[in-house]
C-alpha cells in the first residue's frame, strides 16, 4: 500500500503582509498530480491545515476545492486529516459528515465521542489501521489519565499523551493484530529539529516523547507541527515538514512530503521515500555590512524573491536607507531589515529585540493582550476570535 504523508500547510498565512495563495495553489496542484502519478492509496495530513482559527475565505476555498478534486483520483481510497494546534475545531468539524461520503475522515480533537481508529480496507480486506491522533488539547489529555490529578503541567502532558497513544494502539491491535498499524500525531518530540515559525504547544515546550517510544508500537508514525522534514530516532517515525517555507529561518530547507510503501504484513519493513516539493517562491537571507549586502542584492536574478536583510554596519540606519533605495531601483522586495548589534554596542547587556516585520498581526495583538493580564480566559479568547475575524475580513478585501 502506498501512503502520502504531509502536514503543516498553513493555508491562509499572511507572511509579513504578503499572501501565500499562489504558493499554496501550486503545492496543492502538485500534490494532486503526485497522488495520480505515484498511485497513492492513502493520504495523511497531520495537522495545521490552516494558519489561524479563522482562515480567510480564499483559504477555505482552496481546501474544499482540493478535497473535491481528490475524488477523481482512482487509486486514492481514503484521506485522513487531523487537526493541529493552529486549526479551529469548529472549522474542521463543520463539514465532517459530508466529507466522509467522499472517504475523507477528519479528526478534530480525539475525545471520547470521536472515532480515531480508522481501518483502511480494500473490498472486505483490512490492509492497515490508522490511529488518527490530532493535536491533543488539555481536556483530552486529562481524560486519557482517567481523572488522575497531576500538579506539574509538563508531567501531565507527557503522561497524558503517552497514555493516549498506548490506549489507542491497544484498541487497534484488538481490532486486527495482523495488519500494519500507523499513527498520526501533532506534537514536538525529543531529538527533533525546529525552526522559528513553530510555537510551543505544551507547557514546558518539548515533551519527553521520542521516536523510539512511538516506534515500539507503530509501524509508521506520520507527525506534524515541525516544519523540517526529518526522522526522529527511527526511520519510521517522521515529520513531513511544511510544503512551503513559512519563515526566513526555513529559507535554506528543502520542502518535502513522505511517500510510504507498507506491506500487508506488519513483520515486513516499511519503505519511505522523501519527495521534494517544487519551490514556487524563494526566500533569501542576506547578511553583512553595507557593501556586502549591496553586492548580493545586485546578484539576485529572480525578481520575485522575498528578502530578509541582516545589517552589521557601523552606521546601520544609513545602511538601511541605502539598502532599501537600491532594492527599489533593482525592483526587489525586502520584507524585513534586522540590525545586528555588536557586543560592544549592546554594552554587554542581553537584548532580545523583535521587529514588527517578523510578527503577524495576530501575534502583535496577542502580545498586547498579554500586557492587560486579563484573568477571564473565556473573555480573552473571545477578544482574540473577534480580532482574528476582523483581520480575516481585511484580507478578504485585499483578495477582491
Can you put this structure into words, describing what you see?
With 400 residues, this protein is of the alpha/beta class. It has 3 domains: 275 residues, Metallo-dependent phosphatases (Purple Acid Phosphatase, chain A, domain 2), CATH 3.60.21; 62 residues, Double Stranded RNA Binding Domain, CATH 3.30.160; 45 residues, no CATH class. The chain is 34% helix and 21% strand. The longest helix has 23 residues. Keywords: DNA recombination, DNA replication, Endonuclease, Exonuclease, Hydrolase, Nuclease.
Provide the domain count.
Answer: 3
User: Per CATH, which architecture of the largest domain?
Assistant: 4-Layer Sandwich
- How far apart are the termini? 43 Å
- Could you please say which CATH topology of the largest domain applies here? Purple Acid Phosphatase, chain A, domain 2
Share of helix, binned: 25-40%
The CATH superfamily of the largest domain bears the name Metallo-dependent phosphatases
Family: Belongs to the SbcD family.
Subunit structure: Heterodimer of SbcC and SbcD.
Keywords: DNA recombination, DNA replication, Endonuclease, Exonuclease, Hydrolase, Nuclease
InterPro entries: Calcineurin-like_PHP (IPR004843), DNA_Repair-Maintenance_Comp (IPR050535), Metallo-depent_PP-like (IPR029052), Mre11_N (IPR041796), SbcD (IPR004593), SbcD_C (IPR026843)
Amino acid at each position: 500500500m502506498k501512503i502520502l504523508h504531509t502536514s503543516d500547510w498553513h493555508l491562509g498565512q499572511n507572511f509579513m503582509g504578503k499572501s501565500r495563495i499562489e504558493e499554496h495553489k501550486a503545492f496543492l496542484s502538485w500534490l494532486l498530480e503526485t497522488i495520480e502519478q505515484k498511485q497513492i492509496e492513502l493520504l495523511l495530513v497531520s495537522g495545521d491545515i490552516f494558519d489561524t482559527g479563522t482562515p480567510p475565505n480564499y483559504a477555505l476555498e482552496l481546501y474544499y476545492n482540493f478535497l473535491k478534486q481528490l475524488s477523481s483520483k482512482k487509486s486514492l481510497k481514503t484521506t485522513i486529516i487531523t487537526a493541529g494546534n493552529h486549526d479551529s475545531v469548529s472549522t474542521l468539524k463543520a463539514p465532517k459528515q459530508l466529507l466522509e461520503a467522499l472517504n475523507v475522515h477528519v479528526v478534530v480533537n480525539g475525545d471520547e465521542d470521536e472515532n480515531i481508529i480508522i481501518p483502511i480496507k480494500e473490498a472486505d480486506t483490512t490492509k492497515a489501521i490508522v490511529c488518527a491522533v490530532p493535536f491533543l488539547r488539555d481536556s483530552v489529555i486529562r481524560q486519557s489519565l482517567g481523572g488522575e490529578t497531576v500538579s506539574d503541567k509538563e508531567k501531565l502532558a507527557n503522561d497524558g499523551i503517552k497514555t493516549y497513544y498506548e490506549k489507542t494502539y491497544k484498541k487497534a491491535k484488538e481490532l486486527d493484530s495482523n495488519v500494519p498499524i500507523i499513527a498520526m500525531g501533532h506534537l514536538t518530540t525529543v531529538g527533533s529539529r525546529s525552526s522559528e515559525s513553530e510555537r510551543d504547544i505544551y507547557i514546558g515546550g518539548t515533551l519527553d516523547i521520542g521516536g523510539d517510544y512511538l516506534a515500539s508500537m507503530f509501524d509508521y508514525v506520520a507527525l506534524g507541527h515541525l516544519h523540517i522534514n526529518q526522522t526522529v530516532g527511527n526511520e519510521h517515525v517522521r515529520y513531513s515538514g511544511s510544503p512551503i517555507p513559512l519563515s526566513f529561518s526555513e529559507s535554506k530547507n528543502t520542502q518535502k512530503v513522505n511517500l510510504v510503501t507498507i506491506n500487508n504484513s506488519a513483520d515486513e519493513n516499511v519503505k519511505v521515500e522523501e519527495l521534494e516539493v517544487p519551490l514556487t517562491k524563494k526566500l533569501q537571507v542576506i547578511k553583512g555590512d553595507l557593501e556586502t549586502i549591496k553586492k548580493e542584492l545586485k546578484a539576485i536574478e529572480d525578481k520575485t524573491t522575498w528578502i530578509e536583510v541582516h545589517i552589521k554596519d557601523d552606521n546601520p540606519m544609513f545602511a538601511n536607507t541605502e539598502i532599501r533605495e537600491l532594492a527599489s531601483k533593482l525592483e526587489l522586495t525586502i520584507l524585513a531589515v534586522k540590525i545586528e548589534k555588536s557586543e560592544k554596542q549592546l554594552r554587554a547587556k542581553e537584548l532580545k529585540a523583535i521587529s514588527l516585520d517578523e510578527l503577524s498581526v495576530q501575534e502583535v495583538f496577542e502580545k498586547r493582550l498579554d500586557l492587560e493580564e486579563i484573568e477571564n480566559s473565556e473573555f480573552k479568547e473571545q477578544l482574540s476570535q473577534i480580532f482574528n475575524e476582523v483581520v480575516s475580513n481585511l484580507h478578504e478585501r485585499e483578495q477582491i
